[in-house]
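Two records follow; treat each independently.
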Amino acid sequence: MSRLLIVDDELSVLSALQRSLRRHFGTALEVQVHSDPVRALALMRAQRFDLVLSDLRMPGMDGLAFLARAAQLQPDCVRLVLSGTGDFAAAQAAINELGVFRFLSKPWLDDALAEQIDAALVRALDQRRLRAAAQRALAVAVPAAEALSPQERERRRLEALEPGITEVRWGPAGEVLVSDLIDLDGAPPR
């Protein structure tokens, strides 16, 4: 079951959103609501959510500040904004700076709201899969890297910065062979 947290200072909006989403998703989506962003953050410290939908304009803590803190607590939680104002600068900041997935408007159409929540749930599932794949890859890579000596780790770091820097060509008498030098203009030396 997926979990959604809705934060809005208007109780009537919270009730309407809850009813609309319950009609569309039934028990497939657990919806929790809060009118206080500070208490909602405390709830996010205790429980995992797939989605969080926040009103933009709230007293005390606005939606952007709330979503920024929510992102710190649960980076994989897909964030959405709901607003009754057409504040383009706030929408731009939400999307560009906070990684908000969708900026929804009040009043909403129930079917359109359900479509946006569906899209956000797909996004949340994709993010969870990507994170799990990255963690599996890291779990494989870390033990292999830990088995390397400090010198080998440094050699690999240097090689990543400057490919070929750690390759040494040896001559028949044990001397180090140096590549031909090139002048600054790209021509071989005379």
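The next record belongs to a different protein.
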Amino acid sequence: MMGLPLGIVVEGLVSILLLLTIGYSILLNERLKKLHADRETLKLIISDLVQATDTANGAIRELRQAATDVETTLSERLEEADRFAVDLANHVTSGQAVMERIAKILAAARQAETSGADVAPTATKRAQEALRRLRSHQMQKSEAA
């Protein structure tokens, strides 16, 4: 550096720094262009995401409403089933009482037959008629089922 004046050396260094700055600016400019292009793509993606979120929220609201409707319907059906169960229990109890009465009538009729006593023919006929009706009723119930 003996023959070069200090001014030229400083200006050479400044020129090199300027060229580096210009090169770096060009590189940054390219990155900014990509960023802006990605920004538009990102806006589209965000827009699609917001739309999908709104659709999902609507579907969730509909599912909640459907679940509420199903729960209401199920509760009503369970209450109806409980009523039928109570009615069925009452019918079974009534049926057992009728069966007990029929059994008593049959026992009395058989006892009268075996004892040889003269049982009123109407009592025996009534017992036989009750048995016939019971069989008929049972056959109707089994056909209906």
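Discussion point: The chain is about 90% helix and 0% strand. How would you locate this feature using only the token line?
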